[in-house]
Design a protein that fits this description.
Strand order of the largest sheet: 6-5-4-1-7
Largest sheet: 5 strands, antiparallel
Structural class: mainly beta
Radius of gyration: 12 Å
Number of strands: 7
Helix content: under 10%
Distance between the termini: 30 Å
Number of helices: 0
């Protein structure tokens, strides 16, 4: 098992495709986020992706369990600047 799953690029902006909750963070449709960093929670067996909201600077985290497909991010986030 690799404890790295890089699916976002630091400094790039992403649009939230639909509202949802992940852990303690709430994401809103059309919200613009800047990706900061990723990590892994051994306790939760999950990858953790950290963003900053472009509108208010709030830090938000998206949790992806290691058994979930990395491609599932496309249902939640869209890259808006390549």
């Amino acid at each position: 098992m690799s404890y790295e799953r890089h699916i976002f690029t630091a400094g790039r902006r992403y649009r939230v495709m639909r509202s949802f909750m992940s852990g303690a963070s709430t994401f809103f449709t059309n919200e613009i986020l800047v990706f900061r960093l990723d990590g892994y929670s051994y306790y939760d067996n999950s990858f953790v992706y950290e963003f900053t909201s472009q509108s208010d600077g709030q830090v938000k985290t998206w949790w992806l369990h290691e058994d979930d497909a990395a491609a599932s991010f496309e249902a939640f986030f869209e890259l808006i600047d390549a």
